[in-house]
Write a structure and sequence with these properties.
It contains 19 helices and 15 strands. It has 509 residues and is α/β, with parallel strands linked by helices. The two termini are 51 Å apart.
Length: 509
């Protein structure tokens, strides 16, 4: 079955920001669009607002005047639900309440034709549950747009337990015809993006709750070292703390309070205080007029060492070694790596430097400074360091100077297991692998969803392949030792992948 013909009517029920955005997308794609809202007069107001959006697109040169005028002529507010009788697709964007959506679709079932696809834009409710009371639940599919709908390319196409394959295929092909990138996924809590993305927020909140770093510093490290477009604190301020916390709580409850999805008490307190982010003027940061921009902790300038000892093959440090040599710092290579360790760097004073492995630096029992993972050590502009309690202040300053000599800003954080980027990425990879193994979506669609839906610098499965399943597993195992709550218990999918990786490496030895 092909995409819905452009001559067929698309109806949008619910005229808030999302409803207006979906209507605009369908209009620009060439469909006649009906807008309906249960509140009298709201549909007409929304139609005018959509028209104004089209005017702005024309002013900016993104839509020619003829196309704008044609789109406006195809947009009609509906006074009654029965005015949607000729729709080939109805997309609801009403309140996130199950009973409201069920009652709406039950009413529509008696109005629209048999070939009409009924789509819910829910982000947190079960598509299966929405369709449950209907006589013909097979026509119900999830079409989850991301805000703002006209700009965000991703659409999650969600098949409920009873969704007919032709309905899901028609919805997917229609979204593609509208210029969107659709991904197919099963009806599980959070679908793809809101399920896999939970650690991005949760790990940052956990680091903050342990007072290892402040929000501005955590955001800066994830942006400037991890390569993420926005940090989790500034992003949740943009989304709305109440909205983000509600999604986290919904996913947690839907998974029967699984420890991996546990909400944050710090975020709960923020919501209870009314600090909801940009929309309330204050969240993690202040958005009042004249409020200063958040400033991350950045270490003052320090002198670099003249040389660095390299023992064995330090994990994940190949690019770092290149940068050290390019900075004119002598590398003294020695083959005698410490027993049981893959290799490490040493400052002239003997203090060890290594990429975080998930354990606290203190657990090594020696002077050790961990540095955090980077998306690309060459292009990263910031590095986070965490030292064990036995590291002298002068040694820490020398380590700071080393990374500054490589062109990095340095944030010194408390000795927290897994630091910031490493623990976040490890959890994202594990969540993505678990979702793929459980049939939530294909590997390609999961990576596409995370890149386009939340602007991750790369898909978590692709990232995991580069880092190696064994390395991710070891990091999570050490985190699990530090926090034996089940939160960091590795998925069976990751364990199996790491075992297969070990067999391949053994065969190639």
């Amino acid at each position: 079955m092909t995409a819905i013909e452009r001559s067929r009517v698309v109806a949008v029920v619910g005229t808030g920001t999302m409803g207006q955005g979906i209507a605009q997308v369908a209009l620009v794609a060439g469909h006649p669009v009906r807008l309906y809202d249960a509140l009298p007069g709201r549909a007409l107001e929304a139609a005018r607002a959509v028209g104004a959006r089209l005017d702005r697109l024309t002013e900016k040169g993104r839509l020619d005047a003829g196309a704008r005028d044609s789109a406006k002529a195809r947009l009609l507010p509906a006074a009654e639900l029965t005015d949607l009788a000729d729709a080939a697709l109805v997309v609801e964007a009403v309140l996130e309440r199950l009973t409201v959506k069920q009652e709406l679709f039950a009413a529509l079932e008696d109005i629209v034709g048999e070939d009409c696809v009924l789509a819910t834009n829910t982000s947190s409710l079960s598509v299966t549950a929405v369709a449950g009371p209907l006589r013909h639940p097979g026509r119900v599919v999830g079409l989850h747009f991301f805000n703002p709908a006209p700009l965000m390319p991703l659409v999650e196409v969600v098949s409920g337990h009873a969704t007919d394959e032709p309905a899901a295929t028609r919805a997917r092909e229609t979204a593609a015809a509208w210029g969107k990138t659709p991904v197919r996924c099963a009806d599980t809590p959070g679908f793809v993006v809101n399920r896999v993305a939970r650690p991005f927020y949760a790990e940052a909140l956990r680091v903050h709750e342990e007072r290892a770093a402040d929000p501005a510093t955590i955001d800066a490290v994830l942006r400037e070292s991890g390569g993420f477009r926005m940090g989790p604190f500034e992003l949740t301020d943009l989304i709305g703390q109440d909205v983000n916390e509600a999604v986290t709580r919904s996913v947690w409850e839907s998974f029967f309070q699984d420890a991996r999805f546990t909400p944050s008490l710090a975020q709960r307190r923020l919501v209870e205080s009314g600090r909801l982010g940009r929309k309330s003027g204050r969240g993690w940061f202040s958005y009042e007029d004249g409020a200063p921009a958040p400033v991350p902790h950045t270490a003052p300038p320090a002198d670099p060492p003249s040389s660095v000892v390299v023992r064995g093959e330090p994990a994940g440090a190949a690019t770092l070694l290149e940068l050290i040599e390019e900075a004119g710092i002598e590398l003294i290579r020695k083959e005698d790596a410490p027993p049981g360790l893959p290799g490490r760097l040493e400052l002239p004073c003997g203090t060890a430097l290594s990429l975080t492995d998930g354990a606290a630096a203190d657990s090594s029992g020696e002077p050790l400074i961990h540095f955090d993972l980077a998306l690309d050590f060459r292009t990263a502009t910031r590095t986070a360091l965490a030292a064990s309690a036995s590291v002298p202040d002068e040694s820490l300053r020398t380590a700071v100077g080393l990374f500054q000599a490589l062109g990095k800003r340095v944030s010194v954080i408390a000795d927290v297991p897994g630091m910031i980027v490493a623990r976040t990425v490890a959890m994202l990879v594990d969540f993505a692998l678990d979702a793929e193994a459980r049939g939530v979506a294909s590997a390609e669609d999961i990576d596409t969803a995370m890149r386009l839906g939340v602007n991750y610098p790369r898909g978590p499965l692709d990232w995991g392949t580069e880092l190696g399943a064994g390395r991710i597993l070891r990091l999570l195992e050490r985190l699990h030792e530090e926090y034996p709550t089940g939160r960091y218990a590795a998925s069976r999918a990751l364990r199996r992948l790491a075992a297969a990786e070990a067999v391949r490496e053994g065969a190639g030895a």
